[in-house]
Amino acid sequence: MKYLLILFFALTPFLTSSAQPEMPAILSLEQQGKLxxxxxxxxxxxVLPMLMSREGVAMWIIISREYNEDPVLKTMLPSKWMGxxxxxxxxxxxxxxxxxxxxxxxxxxxxxxxxxxxWDPEKQPDQWAALREIxxxxxxxxxxxxxxxxxxxxxxxxxxxxxxxxxxxxxHLRSRLISGEKLAIxxxxxxxxxxxxxxxxxxxVAHTIIAEAFSNxxxxxxxxxxxxxxxxxxxxxxxxxxxxxxHPTVDVQRAENQELYAFSGRPDATVIMPGDLLHxxxxxxxxxxxxxxxxxxxxxxxxxxxxxxYLVRAFGKGxxxxxxxxxxxxxxxxxxxLLARALVQGKDEGLRPTIYTHPIGYHGHGAGPTxxxxxxxxxxxxxxxxxxxxxxxxxxxxNTKVRIDAWDKDIRMMMEEDGFWDGEKFRYIDGRQTExxxxx
Length: 440
Description:
Elements: H1 2-10, H2 29-55, E1 59-65, H3 71-76, E2 87-93, E3 102-105, E4 116-117, H4 127-138, E5 143-145, H5 159-168, H6 171-174, E6 177-179, H7 181-189, H8 193-213, H9 226-239, E7 243-244, E8 249-253, E9 277-282, E10 284-286, E11 289-290, E12 293-299, H10 309-326, H11 335-348, E13 353-355, E14 358-359, E15 392-404, E16 409-421, E17 426-428, E18 437-439
């Protein structure tokens, strides 16, 4: 499978301004459900044992109630469950002797094919007492629950459930409770080869929508506004039956004095004109996976057939900044180390970079190392100290300031593209934009 994955990425085409890709086939809800369940079974057999062993944890308990689900639990439920039912308790146990993991549900019924029913209400009416019996029978030396000060995705157990668990356990087991932070992050960030194969299609859908949006199919210069393009992108995803995980952005940089919007705000609606440099930020959710992409386009002036050389060069500087960052990837390096190394090298090469890269996968701003924030270029405490692991995916998000003499101002060449770290090499999941889109 690993060799097929390498071949798959090697054959992935680069995205260019001339490419108008066809929309990839969209799977039906039934197909997506079967895919989800097959991934869940595979992850239970491969990812879970690896994580339990790596972190040296004997038991991991995940508890949620309906409408207040732990982010991790939501990814462990079968496709036909829209959420937790009543109080859902999942127990993962590793006896440390090389046996298969036990994946149990302290529930009235199996939770899909992975988590098997381990509570008989006829014999023990109290669900919490039944959970205590499951734990006591196995007597784990460390019991992980999803509590975390710094990683929201790993802080899924509610305050009441945590207090109730402590109250339920006898003292000798209560003292063994630990944070499951690294288990939660590891589960969410680790990608399967089979997931990555489909991720290419997911990215292909997002790239196709952007290519449509940055074309004359959508844009009539002098008439179309940036908000018109934003809503086209939202409606396009909706008509395909796909979700989006944030409201898109489309903004303009042009020769006339116009301040760029602050990262803490949104750009105003602007009529798109010839000579504009367009930028978008767009992310869809499909097959349980998220995309996050920032592409750029140029609106040709009458008589022009290509973008001005100064914008082409600026685009190249942005691409070089991306390369500098991804060249730093190495197992065990923290997000802060990647950030510091890339900033030093970028500045040594005469660039003016700002880096704010993040993991991606089940969530848009996913679990794993944070590589800078737009307002924290000196490093990000704790979340930036998390190390890089193999088989993880990232949105390479950043900008490079470039002086445009013809405009007598600086611009920001803002870029974002999703890629995969296999432990040895970094590859973009569906290629990356290598030329400005051209709008006529």
